[in-house]
Structure formats: C-alpha cells, structure tokens
Amino acid sequence: DGGITQSPKYLFRKEGQNVTLSCEQNLNHDAMYWYRQDPGQGLRLIYYSQIVNDFQKGDIAEGYSVSREKKESFPLTVTSAQKNPTAFYLCASRNRGNEKLFFGSGTQLSVL
Amino acid sequence: SQQGEEDPQALSIQEGENATMNCSYKTSINNLQWYRQNSGRGLVHLILIRSNEREKHSGRLRVTLDTSKKSSSLLITASRAADTASYFCATDDSSGGSNYKLTFGKGTLLTVNP
C-alpha cells in the first residue's frame, strides 16, 4: 500500500532526553512537512522540506531539528531544548504540482 | 501565526441535518483547502478551492469562497453519524514553487447524533 508511515504511535520522553520521530513515505513525493497539534490550537508548522538535502523552518522550529537525506524519509528530533514537547505530531507529504497534503496517522509524544 | 480561523469551534447536530462551518483568513491566498480529522488520526483532504473560484461541490460537500471578505464556508448536507470529526481549513499564501506550505486553522469539531 502507498502512504505515509509514522512511528512510533506513542512515545514517551524523559526530561533532558532527545527523541526522534520517524516519517517514511513511499508515494515518491518531493515535499514533506512536520506539524504539531495541541488541543484547541490546530496545526502549527515545525519544519518542511521541498527537496532532498534542503529544509526550512516553520513557525515553531525552536527545540526541534530535522534531516532530509533521502527522498522518502523526514525524521524529526525533539531536543531537550523543547520545554513543552507533549503534543500530537503529524507528518505530511506532497507531490510537486499538487497542492494537497497527504498525512500520516501521527505520533503522540508525552513527557514522563 | 494562524491564518485560518474556523467558526464555530464546536457544532452538534442530528443525523440528516446540514452542517455549515466557516473559515476566515487574513492575507491573500492562492487556494483554500478543507481537511477532516477523526479523533487521534491524521488529516484527510476533502476539497480545494482556488482563489478565482466562488463555489465547488464534491458529493455531499459544498465549499464557497469570498475573497473580498476573506472567508470560506463548508456545507455538509444530509449529515451522517460517520461525519463526526474535526474539520480544518488550510490556506496557501505562499509565493508558490519552492516555498509552498499550508497554514491551518484551529478546526471545528462536528458531532452528528444518530
């Protein structure tokens, strides 16, 4: 099946720890996006990448880092600098020339 | 910053009734899209309307766009319990090309009671 796979579905972070959320797509899409969703606040853009080896900061990039070494993969690292990481994280992708986004099923990150 | 703002925040109706959700935005856009999210899941694209279009239909969905008022509405006709979900509008106000990104609103939670 073609689609976007996010893993794990649930993740727990200890204080001071970095954690990495995985996002893999087999849709051959060029662009990939990371959004954070908090209750009542909708989706906010963290980072996005339009092409391999290139990415841009979104509205709330502080405390996060990404890499785009392969077209199909766009992992997100939540660093210890992110003081309020508890949220639902959504990864999305888009094909060049198509405006709509395809989303993964999300990762719920919680702090222990 | 948030571009789209949905109204109402929550809407509860009976099965068979129509549901209308509104979205307002602040800057000029290239297109506006509506997405649906079931609880704890990812978003699913519903419909896209371009800035030069005024109305679009897809099955039981009707979307309108008023660029002079910077607003859009999503109408779901003959609602079903399975339509229960959160609905988000998203705007593309980028210059296009390499800077394409969508800005999402806070969403409307629709509950359809059987």
Task: Describe the fold and architecture.
The complex is a heterodimer of chains A (112) and B (114). By secondary structure, chain A is an all-beta fold. Chain A is 0% helix and 52% strand. Chain A is built from no helices and eleven strands. Chain A has strands at 4-7, 10-13, 19-25, 31-38, 42-51, 54-57, 64-66, 76-78, 87-94, 102-103, 107-111. In chain A, a hairpin with a 3-residue loop joins strand 4 and strand 5. Chain A is globular and about 40 Å long. Chain A starts with a strand and ends with a strand. The mean pLDDT of chain A is 94. Chain B has no helices and eleven strands. Chain B starts with a strand and ends with a strand. With 114 residues, chain B is an all-beta fold. The chains are: A mainly beta (112), B mainly beta (114).
Q: What is the typical, i.e. mean, pLDDT of chain A? A: 94
Query: In total, how many beta strands of chain A?
Result: 11
Mind telling me the C-alpha Rg of chain B? 14 Å
* Oligomer type: heterodimer
Average pLDDT number of chain B: 92
Shape of chain B: globular
Largest interface by Cβ-Cβ < 8 Å: A-B, 30 and 27 residues
Question: What topology emerges from the helices and strands here?
Answer:
The complex is a heterodimer of chains A (112) and B (114).
Chain A: E1 4-7, E2 10-13, E3 19-25, E4 31-38, E5 42-51, E6 54-57, E7 64-66, E8 76-78, E9 87-94, E10 102-103, E11 107-111
Parallel strand pairs in A: 2-11
Antiparallel strand pairs in A: 1-3, 3-8, 4-5, 4-9, 5-6, 7-8, 9-10, 9-11
Chain B: E1 5-7, E2 10-14, E3 19-24, E4 31-37, E5 43-50, E6 55-58, E7 61-66, E8 71-76, E9 85-92, E10 103-104, E11 108-113
Parallel strand pairs in B: 2-11
Antiparallel strand pairs in B: 1-3, 3-8, 4-5, 4-9, 6-7, 7-8, 9-10, 9-11
